[in-house]
Structures are given as structure tokens and as C-alpha cells.
């Protein structure tokens, strides 16, 4: 009923088309602006964790300015770790800056609930079918769209052919129908280590929910929370205990190293020191430059489990107090949708997995996918993003959730009993989520 | 004085004196103003702000206005066993680290005022950790105490078992104490060295004549004469350790299994990571109250000792 009223209101506002630069101090709800046919003259402030120089965002911005010469982009970079708190503080100033910001997908529900994101439903829901379903859904909270995805991610199993040969191990199949099991991987990684590899197996990001969530999900567990608004901790099932027990055993048995941080895992594999590694496609360009003789296979699955892989990346959201909503909308649309799958994917020099189906083709045409292993990787990435990807849990309490989960994984890695780690974290999360009840 | 003389053209001496007094007060206020203003702006306003904020409740994030909630934040904090454990942990941490740091700093200070060769070099070496930015020394210690790091390599080479340090709930807080003390001892030592050097030599000569031994001399002369610098060091060290934050944030993130979650870190996490500013304000108010209690206790203990002697 409320939704219907809001929708009616939106239509009425759209019909009157009253233009975008509404300078009222309270957050205007959806409507009041549309994506215009002709470009306005405006300057928009854009906030990102990417930098113009190191991440080569300059190429993307230049391409946008060429396509939309009257809209000037003022691009600002904030380190990833302080991006969320910066958005929090800047949007709360209500002066409308930044107009557009990079939104971490699992935080979108919280951004929407906090009133820090503009409702984009009427402007952009028409593009739903152009995106991978999980990527589009990541921007949805309470049946409304709050952010448009510009990128996606997945995970693959990389292996070092020399180290496997040395241990007399077969190479894992690249076929998604012949997925290795985690159990087999653990055994083989141990053999590779005994045969001289410094590390048997590495996760690209140890202790992070993004990386580890699919493990219990493969065994039929929940993504970590359930109930109304996903605000009830739900990670004490047998599936979670089993997944965490396996995770803890990796370190107890010496298959994976205890003291290696997520920043050190890529260099370890690229330096030929690890036999197996589960990591994202961002490793591909670096592998091309390295001396490692590598192969790629789909991420393993537990015996008797159902394949599930990590996914998700970044979206663009709009400040509800923006005074340049039309120009901001043009920018968001150009980044995510225009130019055959999004200007962001097309003009960023480094290959970045697209959230849109069209953009995926642009991505696969990049030259990292031209080698035989590259072709294997492309097939696997295409399959996982459309068939096995599981989003991180959507909840307004995501920030507390992720912090406590990551700590729980770290505790198990350091030898804590999985069941008691789960119980302690459940209690902690219950307290942290009390404020939302 | 010179200011008073410029307006010394009043007839009656009494009135002149009174005017001079007023002038003096005026200029006193002018010269004190920067201190008073900053005291109000930097201390009183934020304190009142924190207390007020702790009485409100708001949805996390900065957009939706807060509503008055009385003591609800405090009630929910004390209803949480995890938070109560954090308070106990913080107090225990301080009851161990403050006396330990000051005792070691005092022993080192006493050692370094003796006539030993190269005393300047030893003092400098003790002080070096203070000059390294705390973030840098935390990163270095984090690497050194890594499960596969150099300290464990040395322990293994000497035939011992590698230690988990930051990765076990039993050792993480102790490891943090070691790092904090590595920095703190040299710093507090410096104040105690200057305090020791201010004690008149005659007192020690008199003790020698009375045939007092080194322990008796230390207890009856050094300690009482050092009361002022000791009180300062004790209070300042207590405050520093109650708000200790960087090693926890950088090295353990409050874990493993909450074993290093101290109140200061908890307040930071609640306010900035979780965005619950009001609840975080309540935690800060509690932290300040506990800290003030200990500081007042220290003032009282050391003053009473002074009056009885």
C-alpha cells in the first residue's frame, strides 16, 4: 500500500517534470528528476577509492568528458578504508557533495536505510536485464534500486604446474562439470607442500567473509543471517560448523600458512611459492607478466555439496542532497550502461569484470584472455557469474556483520574451536544488531 | 607593573591601588584568555557534548535526527556481558601495566643516574623507542612477533617452542603490554631521571653517615623526594594507557576472541566503524569516568602519604 502511494507520487512528479536542481535542505525522495535527453551544463563531484593516476581512472573520465563535454567531473580519491566513513560524514553535511560515490555493494542496504542514497528505481530499473542478476540485486533494498553496478567479481582456482609436477599430482580439470572437491584439494596441497612447495594452498583473502561465505552455502548453510531484514544471526548450523572446521584444519595441518596476510598472497603465488590458490580474475594480468607456469580451474566444492562462488564488487550511488541530479544520473548511466556495457569497463585500461552482460564481452575481448589458460579462465568466469555466484548477505547491519564475521574467521584460523567461535560471534552480533530491532 | 604606572594619575592612593588591581585583573584575564578559551572549546564543550550525545539514540549514520532516550544507551551497555567483560579487561590491563611500567622505568632511572660508563649512550638507547612513531613500531613489532617471524625463529633456534603471541587469546594482551611498555618505559624514565637528579646530594651523604643501606636509602630518601615526579608520571601513564589504541587497532583488531578489546578501541569501533555515535559517546563517558576515578585515587594516595610524613 505504502509502496503504491510512493509510486503514484513518483509518477506525478515525473509527469510535472519539475527539473533537478531542487535546493531544499531536506532529502527529497525519489522523483523530481529524470535522465534528460540533452546534457545540462554542470560540474559533478565524484568520490571513489580509485585514483586517477595509479588506477588510471583518468582514461575513463577523459572518455566521459569527450562524450558529455558540458558535464565537468571533479574526481576525488579517498583510501578504501576510510571511504565508508567519509561518505557518511560528507552526505550528512547536506551540501550535496559528492554527487556520485562508489558504493561497496553489501553496504548499499545500510546506505539506503541511513538516507544516504538516492532512490534510482524510476530512472534505472529499466536496465535490470542488462546486468548479471546478483550484480543488479546488490543495489536493491526494500524493492527499490539504490545503486547501479559497474563491476563484478568471481573466484578461480589457480595452480602452479611445476610444483604439481614435482609432487606427481594431476592438473585439475578446467571444466565446470569436473570441479575438484575441497577434500581432494586439501590432500593434494599437502602432498605438494611435502614435495617442496613453500605453501600448499592459499586463499587470496584469508579471513574475509567475501571469500569464505560460499563454503557453508555449498553445504546448504545460510549466507550468515536470516529473518526480517536479515537481522537475525544464522551461522550456527552444521553446515557452518563443518565449513569452519575445514577452514581451521587448513592451518592446523600446515596446508595453508597461519601468518600470511591477504596483501602477501598474490606475491606468494606469482613468485612460484604456492601450489594452489583461490583468487579473483585480477590475478590474470599479473600472471601474464610472471614467470610462473600456471593453469586455472573452477573453485572447488565440498563433497556432496552444491557449487557456490563469491561475487560482487562496486556500484555507483547518488547523494540524495545532490544539486546536480540530472548530470549525476547521466554519469552513472554512462559508467554502467552506455557504450556497449558501460564506459567504466570499456575505458579502464586494466581488465575489470563487468556487471553487465554486454560489458562482459568487452572484458573477455581483452588480451589477457587470448592464451589457452586465458580462454579457460573466460569460460569459467562466464559460468560462475551467471550460475553459481552467491551475493554477500543484504542487511542494513552489514558493517557490524562483516566486522564480526571476519574476526570469527581469524579466530578459527588461529586455532579457536569452531563451535565456540561461532557461539561467541553470534552473541556479539546479536548485541551489535540490537539497535536495529 | 609598567601598565599600572602609565595610569598612575589618580589622586587618592587607595583608589589608585584599586584601579591598579582592576587593571591587573584585566590583563591577567587577557593573558589567560587563550588558555581559558581553549580549555572551554577543547575540553568542556566536547565533554558536555559527549554526555549529551550519550543520552540520545539515533539510527547509525549522520542523516536521521537523534531522539532523547535518557539512560537507555547505558542500560543496554551494562546489559551486554561482552561490554562488561571489556570494562573488567580494561581495568585489569591498567592495574597491571601502569605499576609495571613505572616500576621498571624507576629502576632503569635509578640505574642510569649512577656513575656508570657511557651513561649518556644508555639513556639515549632507552629513549630511542619514544622517538619512533607508534604506528611504525607497531608494524615492526607485528612483523617480529608473527607466528612465522624472527622472534619465533630465534626461540626455535634456541630449542624452544614457537609462541602464538598475537594469535592466541592467552598471549595477545600481554604482547600488547610489551609493545606499549617498550615505548612507555623510556619516556617515563626521562621524567624520573630529572627528578632523581634534583634530589640534593647532602641527603644521601647524611644517610651514608647514618649508615643507611641502599634499600633503606631508596625507600626513605629517593622515593619520598621523588613524590612529585612520581605522581605526575603515574597519572600521565594511567591516562595514556586507558586511551591506548594504536597497537590494538593495528595488530589485533580487538581479537583473538575479544581478548584485546579495550574500552578505547571499543568506543572507536562503535562510533566510527559501526556509525553508532550515541552509543560510542556513552562508552567514552564511561571510559572517562573510570579513568578519573583512578586518577583521583592516585592523587589522594600520594597526598595522604605526603601529609603523614
Automatic annotation (TrEMBL), chain A:
The GO terms describing molecular function are:
maltose binding
Residues in the signal sequence: 1-17
Output one GO BP term: maltodextrin transmembrane transport
One Pfam entry name = SBP_bac_1
Is the keyword Cell membrane assigned to this protein?
A: no
Identify the keywords attached in UniProt to this record, alphabetized: Signal, Sugar transport, Transport
Query: Which segments does the entry list as coiled coil?
Result: none
Q: Which InterPro entries match?
A: SBP
Q: Which GO terms describe its cellular component?
A: ATP-binding cassette (ABC) transporter complex, substrate-binding subunit-containing
Q: Which PANTHER family does this UniProt record tie to the protein?
A: MALTOSE-BINDING PERIPLASMIC PROTEIN, MALTOSE_MALTODEXTRIN-BINDING PERIPLASMIC PROTEIN
- Family assignment from sequence similarity: Belongs to the bacterial solute-binding protein 1 family.
Name the chain's protein.
Multiple sugar transport system substrate-binding protein
From TrEMBL, chain B:
**Annotated membrane topology:** Multi-pass membrane protein
Q: Which CDD domains match?
A: TM_PBP2 (cd06261)
Q: Which domain of life is it from?
A: Bacteria
Gene Ontology cellular-component annotations? plasma membrane
**PROSITE patterns, alphabetized:** ABC_TM1
The record places domain ABC transmembrane type-1 at 87-298
**Cellular compartment(s):** Cell membrane
What are the BP-aspect GO terms? Answer: transmembrane transport
Q: Say which family it is in.
A: Belongs to the binding-protein-dependent transport system permease family.
**Protein name per its UniProtKB record:** Multiple sugar transport system permease protein
Amino acid at each position: 500500500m505504502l509502496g503504491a502511494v510512493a509510486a503514484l507520487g513518483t509518477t506525478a512528479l515525473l509527469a510535472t517534470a519539475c527539473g533537478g536542481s531542487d535546493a531544499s535542505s531536506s532529502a527529497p525522495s525519489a522523483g523530481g528528476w529524470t535522465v534528460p535527453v540533452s546534457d545540462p551544463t554542470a560540474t559533478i563531484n565524484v568520490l571513489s577509492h580509485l585514483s586517477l593516476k595509479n588506477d588510471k581512472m583518468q582514461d575513463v573520465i577523459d572518455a566521459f568528458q569527450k562524450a558529455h563535454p558540458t558535464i565537468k567531473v571533479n574526481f576525488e580519491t579517498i583510501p578504501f578504508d576510510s571511504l565508508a566513513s567519509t561518505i557518511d560524514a560528507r552526505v550528512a553535511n547536506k551540501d550535496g557533495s559528492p554527487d556520485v560515490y562508489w558504493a561497496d555493494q553489501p553496504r548499499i542496504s545500510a546506505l539506503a536505510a541511513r538516507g544516504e542514497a538516492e532512490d534510482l528505481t524510476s530512472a534505472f530499473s529499466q536496465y535490470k536485464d542488462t546486468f548479471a542478476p546478483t550484480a543488479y540485486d546488490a543495489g536493491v533494498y526494500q524493492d527499490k534500486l539504490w545503486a547501479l553496478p559497474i563491476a563484478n567479481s568471481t573466484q578461480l582456482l589457480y595452480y602452479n604446474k611445476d610444483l604439481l609436477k614435482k609432487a606427481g599430482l594431476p592438473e585439475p580439470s578446467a571444466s565446470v562439470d569436473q570441479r575438484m572437491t575441497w577434500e581432494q584439494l586439501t590432500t593434494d596441497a599437502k602432498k605438494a607442500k611435502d614435495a617442496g612447495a613453500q605453501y600448499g594452498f592459499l586463499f587470496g583473502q584469508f579471513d574475509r567473509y567475501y571469500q569464505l561465505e560460499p563454503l557453508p552455502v555449498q553445504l546448504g548453510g545460510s549466507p550468515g543471517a536470516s529473518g526480517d531484514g536479515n537481522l537475525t544471526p544464522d551461522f550456527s548450523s552444521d553446515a557452518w560448523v563443518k565449513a569452519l572446521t575445514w577452514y581451521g584444519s587448513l592451518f592446523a595441518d600446515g596446508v595453508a600458512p597461519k601468518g600470511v596476510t591477504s596483501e602477501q598472497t598474490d606475491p606468494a603465488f606469482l613468485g612460484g611459492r604456492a601450489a594452489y590458490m583461490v583468487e579473483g580474475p585480477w590475478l590474470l594480468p599479473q600472471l601474464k607478466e610472471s614467470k610462473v607456469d600456471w593453469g586455472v580451474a573452477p573453485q572447488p566444492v565440498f563433497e556432496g555439496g552444491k557449487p557456490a562462488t563469491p561475487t560482487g564488487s562496486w556500484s555507483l550511488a547518488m547523494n540524495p542532497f545532490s544539486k546536480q541530479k540530472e548530470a549525476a544520473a547521466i554519469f552513472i548511466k554512462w559508467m554502467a550502461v552506455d557504450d556497449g556495457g558501460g564506459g567504466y569497463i570499456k575505458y579502464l585500461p586494466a581488465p575489470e569484470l563487468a556487471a553487465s552482460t554486454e560489458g562482459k564481452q568487452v572484458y573477455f575481448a581483452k588480451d589477457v584472455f587470448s592464451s589457452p589458460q586465458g580462454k579457460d579462465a573466460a569460460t569459467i568466469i562466464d559460468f560462475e557469474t551467471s550460475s553459481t555466484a552467491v551475493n554477500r548477505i543484504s542487511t542494513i547491519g552489514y558493517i557490524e556483520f562483516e566486522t564480526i564475521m571476519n574476526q570469527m574467521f581469524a579466530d578459527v584460523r588461529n586455532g579457536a574451536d569452531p563451535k565456540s567461535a561461532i557461539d561467541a560471534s553470534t552473541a556479539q552480533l546479536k548485541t551489535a544488531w540490537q539497535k536495529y530491532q | 607593573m609598567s601598565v599600572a604606572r602609565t595610569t598612575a594619575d589618580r589622586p587618592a592612593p587607595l583608589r589608585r591601588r584599586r584601579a591598579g588591581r582592576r587593571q591587573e585583573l584585566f590583563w591577567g584575564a587577557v593573558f589567560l584568555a587563550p588558555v581559558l578559551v581553549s580549555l572551554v572549546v577543547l575540553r568542556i564543550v566536547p565533554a558536555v557534548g559527549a554526555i549529551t550525545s550519550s543520552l540520545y539514540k539515533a539510527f547509525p549514520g549522520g542523516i536521521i535526527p537523534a531522539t532523547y532516550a535518557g539512560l537507555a544507551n547505558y542500560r543496554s551497555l551494562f546489559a551486554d556481558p561482552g561490554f562488561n567483560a571489556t570494562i573488567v579487561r580494561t581495568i585489569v590491563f591498567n592495574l597491571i601495566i601502569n605499576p609495571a611500567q613505572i616500576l621498571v622505568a624507576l629502576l632503569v632511572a635509578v640505574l642510569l643516574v649512577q656513575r656508570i660508563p657511557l651513561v649518556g649512550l644508555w639513556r639515549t638507547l632507552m629513549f630511542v623507542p619514544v622517538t619512533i612513531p607508534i604506528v611504525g613500531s607497531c608494524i615492526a613489532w607485528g612483523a617480529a612477533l608473527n607466528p612465522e617471524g624472527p622472534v619465533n625463529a630465534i626461540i626455535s633456534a634456541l630449542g624452544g617452542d614457537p609462541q602464538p603471541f598475537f594469535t592466541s587469546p592467552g598471549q595477545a594482551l600481554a604482547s600488547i603490554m610489551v609493545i606499549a611498555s617498550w615505548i612507555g618505559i623510556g619516556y617515563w624514565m626521562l621524567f624520573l631521571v630529572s627528578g632523581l637528579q634534583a634530589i640534593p646530594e647532602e641527603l644521601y651523604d647524611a644517610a651514608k653517615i647514618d649508615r643507611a643501606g641502599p634499600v633503606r636509602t631508596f625507600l626513605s630518601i629517593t622515593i619520598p623526594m621523588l613524590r612529585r615526579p612520581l605522581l605526575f608520571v603515574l597519572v600521565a601513564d594511567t591516562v595514556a594507557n586507558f586511551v591506548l589504541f594504536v597497537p590494538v587497532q593495528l595488530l589485533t583488531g580487538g581479537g583473538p576472541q575479544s581478548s584485546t578489546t579495550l574500552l578505547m578501541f571499543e568506543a572507536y569501533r562503535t562510533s566510527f566503524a559501526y556509525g553508532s555515535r550515541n552509543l560510542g559517546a556513552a562508552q567514552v563517558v564511561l571510559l572517562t569516568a573510570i579513568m578519573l576515578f583512578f586518577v583521583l585515587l592516585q592523587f589522594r594516595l600520594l597526598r595522604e602519604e605526603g601529609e603523614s610524613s
